[in-house]
Amino acid sequence: MRLTLIALSLVILAGCGPSAPAPALNEGASAPAATPASGPESAPVGGPESAAASLPGPTRLDGQGERGLYAFKLTPMPAEPVMGQIFQIETRVTDARTNAPILGATFKLDATMPQHRHGMMTEAVHKELGEGRYLSEGLKLHMPGAWEIRVDVDAKAGHDTIKLPYEQRPVATPR
Question: Residue 104 is part of a domain; what is its CATH number?
């Protein structure tokens, strides 16, 4: 019985142990390559086969949806969320071809740790701010490692999704 409990404990601990790191936000790493667009407000353009995303700094998560209908630009607040603390994300959604803001969409943002097969311990609340901007409040990444932020939008042109890698850093401990 004792041996069974020890073995079970080791299996559980291994499931939430260290994982292969995702690109860190402030290391300038990139997800699948995107074709550059012109102008500072333009989101990268990629093929509908994959969600194109770029992670050049701590406040930028953006790309084109999997179906190529919408472009997404996410801005976390604070710019680099602290593990275990509530934060919010403002998402700008535009038409991928015309850059026109997407108004009145059904919007959802969520975060999961695919390698661990779990998500956040909180459920985000979403509201439309106008001009194609949507605010997600009540987000909390409760452990360090590779997360995936997923945004789903249903609007006049149809449904589109983007999945963006996000590396949550551990909380620094004082020495």
Answer: 2.60.40.10
- d(CA 117, CA 174) in angstroms, rounded, equals 31
Q: Does 146 reside within a domain?
A: yes
How big is the chain by its Cα radius of gyration, in Å? 18
Is-above-0.70 flag for pTM? no
- Give the C-alpha separation, 107 to 3, whole Å: 48
70-77 sheet: strands from edge to edge: 52-54, 61-64, 70-77, 87-95, 133-139, 125-130
Task: Give, for all 175 residues of the chain, the pLDDT tens digit.
Answer: 554 444 434 333 444 544 444 434 333 333 333 333 333 333 333 333 333 333 333 445 999 999 999 999 999 999 989 999 999 999 999 999 999 999 999 999 999 999 888 989 899 999 999 999 999 999 999 999 999 999 999 999 999 999 999 999 898 777 7
The region, left, alpha or beta by phi > 0 then psi within -120 to 50, assigned to residue 24 is beta
Distance (Å, whole) CA 18 – CA 42: 36
* Residue range(s) defining the domain that contains residue 76: 23-168
- Neighbour tally for 136: CB within 10 Å: 23
